[in-house]
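Priority: medium. Attachment 1 of 2:
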């Protein structure tokens, strides 16, 4: 579990009550009653993907990229600097993840959950980009500083927080699939079961009762076998998909881990009952 750690939460159909309780960094930082489940969540944010290796070669320019390869390319282009992660390239990388929702929750009754998740993700991306504009900030640390010192408006931090949580749930799913494959030579559990576990360790504690019920219903329609999941993502084999996924974990971890660390240290990310 120690290598999973820096993964931890999200998808983001937050209800209005959740949003109102996350209205500012100051109100978030006042929350101090952290449950045992919360402590588990915080520990999930403490370890990088540094030990993940990959055998995936860079696709040639004339090769049509899969959804995962698009994400790898986008996260590989994220710029790192002394004052955090460069926001323009990070926002482009975050946006590249949106098509993955169609593969995780492809249809049936899961469709409305998927569509809500995508809608909220785009809304949060819009919040981040709006804050980048009116605050004239270029990096994550500049954003955190500006909103922490401001008049209480925290659109950028809220948007980035919930997108981070989305990605962490999906990346933890990918991590579980990869580790299952490495241990057994094939994926032995249903994709749905791995998704349920990644949800339990990340998003479940962030949602209120309505959110939990909605996701639980959508989860029933998640893919069973990894081959179908891989095909939805554009791969012709389970092996190619999982090897590509290991590269995604490594590349995305490089960009996301500094964001996760900063949000934890600044208490922007507080997993407590007060904000559920």
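Attachment 2 of 2:
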């Amino acid at each position: 579990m120690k290598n999973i750690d820096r993964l931890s939460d999200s998808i983001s159909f937050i209800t209005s009550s959740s949003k109102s309780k996350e209205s500012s960094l100051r109100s978030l930082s006042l929350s101090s009653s952290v449950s045992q489940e919360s402590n588990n969540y915080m520990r999930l944010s403490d370890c990088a993907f540094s030990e993940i290796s990959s055998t995936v070669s860079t696709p040639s320019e004339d090769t049509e990229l899969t959804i995962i390869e698009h994400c790898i390319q986008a996260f590989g282009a994220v710029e790192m600097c002394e004052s955090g992660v460069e926001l323009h390239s990070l926002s482009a990388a975050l946006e590249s993840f949106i098509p993955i929702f169609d593969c995780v929750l492809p249809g049936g009754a899961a469709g409305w959950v998927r569509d809500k998740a995508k809608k909220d993700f785009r809304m949060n991306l819009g919040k981040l980009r709006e804050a980048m504009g009116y605050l004239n900030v270029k990096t994550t640390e500049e954003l955190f500083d500006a909103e922490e010192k401001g008049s209480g408006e925290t659109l950028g931090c809220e948007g980035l927080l919930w997108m981070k949580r989305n990605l962490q749930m999906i990346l933890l799913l990918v991590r579980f699939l990869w580790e299952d494959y490495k241990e057994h030579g094939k994926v032995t559990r249903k994709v749905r079961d791995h998704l349920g576990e990644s949800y339990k360790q990340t998003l479940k504690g962030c949602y209120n009762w309505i959110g939990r019920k909605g996701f639980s219903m959508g989860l029933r329609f998640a893919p069973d076998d990894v081959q179908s999941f891989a095909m939805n993502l554009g791969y012709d084999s389970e092996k190619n998909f999982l090897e590509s996924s290991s590269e995604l974990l490594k590349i995305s971890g490089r960009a996301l881990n500094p964001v996760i660390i900063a949000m934890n240290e600044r208490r922007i990310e507080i997993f407590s009952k007060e904000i559920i």
